[in-house]
Amino acid sequence: MNHLFRNSWTRFVCSFNRFHFSITQNSSKFSHFSGRFEPESWRSMEGMVHCSANHVPLSPISFLDRAAKAFRDRTSVVYGSVKYTWGETHERCLRLASALTQLGISTGDVVATLAPNVPAMHELHFAVPMAGAVLCTLNTRYDSAMLSSLLTHSEAKIIFVDYQLLEIARGAFQVHEKTGAEPPLLVLISESDGPCPVDITSNTYEYESLLANGQNGFQVRRPNCEWDPISLNYTSGTTSRPKGVVYSHRGAYLNSLATVLLHGIGSMPVYLWTVPMFHCNGWCLIWGLAAQGGTNICLRKVTPKGIFDSIAKHSVTHMGGAPTVLNMIVNSPVSDQSPLPHKVEVMTGGAPPPPQIISKMEELGFGVSHLYGLTETYGPGTSCIWKPEWDSLPLDERSKLKARQGVHHLGLEEVDIRDPVTLARVPADGKTMGEIMFRGNTVMSGYLKDLKATEEAFSGGWFRSGDLAVKHPDNYIEVKDRLKDIVISGGENISTVEVETVLFGHPAVLEAAVVARPDDHWGQTPCAFVKLKEGYDHVSAQEIIKFCRDHLPHYMAPRTVIFEDLPKTSTGKTQKFILREKAKTMGSLS
Amino acid sequence: MNHLFRNSWTRFVCSFNRFHFSITQNSSKFSHFSGRFEPESWRSMEGMVHCSANHVPLSPISFLDRAAKAFRDRTSVVYGSVKYTWGETHERCLRLASALTQLGISTGDVVATLAPNVPAMHELHFAVPMAGAVLCTLNTRYDSAMLSSLLTHSEAKIIFVDYQLLEIARGAFQVHEKTGAEPPLLVLISESDGPCPVDITSNTYEYESLLANGQNGFQVRRPNCEWDPISLNYTSGTTSRPKGVVYSHRGAYLNSLATVLLHGIGSMPVYLWTVPMFHCNGWCLIWGLAAQGGTNICLRKVTPKGIFDSIAKHSVTHMGGAPTVLNMIVNSPVSDQSPLPHKVEVMTGGAPPPPQIISKMEELGFGVSHLYGLTETYGPGTSCIWKPEWDSLPLDERSKLKARQGVHHLGLEEVDIRDPVTLARVPADGKTMGEIMFRGNTVMSGYLKDLKATEEAFSGGWFRSGDLAVKHPDNYIEVKDRLKDIVISGGENISTVEVETVLFGHPAVLEAAVVARPDDHWGQTPCAFVKLKEGYDHVSAQEIIKFCRDHLPHYMAPRTVIFEDLPKTSTGKTQKFILREKAKTMGSLS
């Protein structure tokens, strides 16, 4: 048999040259025709060409260009009295990108931010890549030392700083100066509708003035290749020094659409920003909302009252939040709550949500969808797709089903649970634990300047999440623990997530975290750190332990309970490594 | 300034080699790690790698693999008493792909079909590319001569033929034999739940028996490169000999998701197949529904009664259809209609839908969304995104707004209206006509074996649609005519679409098409071909002309009206070239 479609790189180059030739022959007006070809194994054939008419590198900056046409007069951003349309946002981003190039930013340079969810953060997600640069959104809870260290590591040329965080940035610059390093340029983000609250020195720019100097007709520097970097996200550092995760234009485009689809975000949604924009680029939804022509409701500070008020005022349709945000909502005083105008869809993730919290959110009228992912997977990677046949189950069963992490989204190729050493697939029995592994286009390009860590994370051709999970018979996965968090007691694996779920079932428990405590006899035993709800100070450790023993196999119940506030990362994750250190210093129990 | 992210192809190759090395060093178990790199202008940097963990060529066959996990026990296909789950469909497609390779199909071979919307057509959309081959779905209305010609042109190795179309195929084989060419292998699709209606000769295979011989554990032949061809779609041939439009795996993946988003197809929809699956691969929705875990309701024959019955029986949520299908629904006898159980979303396109038909569909309880595209754009390319602020307008104004073709979808980069000669952008004034031009990843790879036609279609770096349109001040485009259909009378352009819209407003008109008639004085004048509704035989040409003069500038009203049935393509498009010939033979009017 002859193969009609065969590898014909040579033939393609030929036909491509002929194409150019014939264009030039026909009319000089068409001289701006531009094309490229792929010298890899493209299976071309006679008549096929690869040119600017049928190929554009995938990038989420295309979403803004489209939104400016399709949704021009609709509201893009609301922040207090500040309000923009998509047409205005587009123009502002063009000006800002132009201003960045005027400051000397070249293709591939890093531009950093230190800011909460204000409009400038929204705009920088488009303007920085439109200037050909890479956006690095730093965690607003870093101290000056950490900030200085990450500015050095990322080689950021400019940092945009919110006025309330200026002292942290100045502190970081002082650390820089001690080492003789040149600090980045600083652009101050002041409140647009108020006076600038600080003096602008000669080495500092102001956001609105800078933007006003940019050109509206700026020619966007699109990526030459869709695998070019678009952003740099440092991990939250629950277990180690933050690592710089590099996202590509291609991955960001694909994860934006996959997240829009997994959250059921239709055309023209109203999205409330309770997830930090600096965290995985807001789970890629800053870009995803431009794709759907949505309205971004920005909040400087996330409080239950602020959430309920915004929902009522702006008819919010969708929002997101780590389980800690959901916990804050369900435990807020009734005086802070107001009835929802309609069902508000909440996407939760970042840590396994206790079923009790999901139940309570749904009682309040929220629809909770549960996703799972890591910074290395652009945020969301799996979701617990809800089957209509589960609707008729009792609330607690529904919540247990929904607390599972589910199946991979459309941007990924595969998520599997495998033995971390042999790579053997675990049986779908809901019992056998293995490591969650990812494979697909929405996995990071690597850790910046840390090839060793990249190699380790990708060893075996899969991204190793470091999370332990089981696979249920219906193929849904359920996280049982971080590989580093699991408690091994008398040879038995104890999922700290399972113990925490029982603890959350106790009426007095507001927050709970379980870690391993060294034990001479058992090796390790579970140790619970618990924050009680107000008015429950009388509850004793013994009562908590008894409650756990009533609801769990004996060996899984905590042997120690300590009442205190839990240390958290800025994204609401409990810093178990701190608690583990604390449990160690208590010595062996036996 | 140093550029942190710079072109570093050499550096990447180095780090890539180091990666392999370190994997091999660490553990021989990880030897199946596989990777590739892009020797084009990827802007890599230290720590970034490009390997099987973070790159998979985009292909819609991934959707089936995911559906088999995420939606395993949910219904994939219903056809009469035949019913499959996604788990079963996945297994059947693996077996079918395996069987194709057993028949000698190699990567890049073409596999053709000649069949209506039956389950085999659904399965072949996955199984053929899973065998590494290219799917060519032929129009079921072709005669034997055309079929023979396209089988020769496509070099199809196998053709799958529905039992009701067997004689057409045999006729084509006889034409083949006369020319001495070897015909393709024939696989007969019989009705699965009945006896095989024809004798199977030794040169012919039967679908179910073939599939049963395939292996479930077949190793899918994924594309090496996402620009590899996945399907070959011949244009409907309204104006010329059908051209073979080549789709890529990448384009098919992106258009599937873009179409799902533009039609608002949520998770687990129920889709009624009234659009032919052979037409643009069912507007890419065969793949799109696998992405969303939908149920495909297959119909051999599309009738109003069949549509209403299927909606009621299967709780259909979405369907599609050319304006002719909508026309058939709104003009069906009341006895064939039944009340809708809920709003059914209908996506219409393929020709400009008359506003009156949209209004009547909405009165019946359908929600109509309007899209526009061509075979060359994988089907849908733009959609008339509906703005909530239009809800309060009167029905006829709403229908006029909705009859516009709208804005480009998320898979494309840009759709613009430009002067076909100078490529200058027309003003967004709703009046100035220009040619609709497309640019982006969901534009075809080219016309098979017709580089000249590909070059013409892509001249200037845009895909030239051959359609004339205006751009409204809100950036929505509106098709006015085919470039070849427009009537030029006394130097004035007359949009035949506008005249047809007025004709549809006359209560007696069922179908209408306007073409140019040569005229010694005016050059051309509009000539209307009209099919009247039953019971309206008394209506005269003069009455129709007067009606048009009352609703249009005088020069735009037809000067001739001819009552007759309109010639159509199988996708419901009127074959205006036939009418134009007819109008020519009538000679000049003056």
UniProtKB/TrEMBL annotation, chains A, B:
It is found in: Cytoplasm, Cytosol. It holds the Pfam family AMP-binding. SUPFAM superfamilies: Acetyl-CoA synthetase-like (SSF56801). PROSITE patterns: AMP_BINDING. InterPro entries: AMP-bd_C, AMP-bd_C_sf, AMP-binding_CS, AMP-dep_synth/lig_dom, ANL_N_sf. CDD domains: ttLC_FACS_AEE21_like. GO terms for cellular component: cytosol. Residues 498-573 form the AMP-binding enzyme C-terminal domain. Keywords: ATP-binding, Ligase, Nucleotide-binding. GO terms for molecular function: 2-methylbutanoate-CoA ligase activity; ATP binding; medium-chain fatty acid-CoA ligase activity; propionate-CoA ligase activity. Gene3D superfamilies: 3.30.300.30, N-terminal domain of ligase-like. The keyword ATP-binding applies. Residues 64-448 form the AMP-dependent synthetase/ligase domain. Belongs to the ATP-dependent AMP-binding enzyme family. This is Acyl-activating enzyme 2.
